[in-house]
Design a protein that fits this description.
- The relative contact order is 0.10.
- This protein is flat.
- It is mostly helical.
- It contains 4 helices and no strands.
- Helices cover about 65% and strands about 0% of the residues.
């Protein structure tokens, strides 16, 4: 995690320099603001990764003499058959269309988002996949 933290911090510094250069040369507010916001996002991610790397065990990516097999193993649990991201995607698309066409679309998208969110959170607490 140390490597990723350093990469994001260096990326943030590069984006900061480019934002300053772009702002001075172009005198354009939208692009300069976007670059400064990208700097902020990169520094937040870099700080989080560097902060977390000090509190967890060193991974194989932090060892210069590590092999690929040293990082093998289970990475986590990912649901292979969930339909809930589809409903969240449809609800999110309707919500963003509500920003474009009218806020009244939010009344249709909010229930779809809530059903998808609750279904995703409680997916393994009911039905054939219940493991509790």
């Amino acid at each position: 995690m140390k490597i990723q933290g350093r990469m994001f911090i260096w990326l943030a510094l590069f984006i900061l320099v480019m934002a300053i250069v772009y702002g001075v040369w172009s005198k354009e507010a939208a692009g300069t603001t976007a670059l400064f916001m990208a700097f902020g996002l990169s520094i937040m991610i870099g700080y989080y990764l560097a902060f977390t790397a000090r509190r967890v065990d060193a991974g194989a990516q932090d060892n210069k003499n590590a092999d690929v097999a040293d990082d093998a193993g289970e990475l986590g649990f990912f649901s292979p058959h969930s339909w809930q991201p589809l409903s969240l995607g449809i609800g999110g698309a309707l919500a963003f269309m509500g920003v474009i066409f009218g806020w009244w679309l939010m009344f249709f998208s909010a229930p779809i988002i809530m059903v998808g969110l609750f279904g995703w959170v409680f997916e393994y607490y009911r039905g054939e996949n219940a493991n509790q």
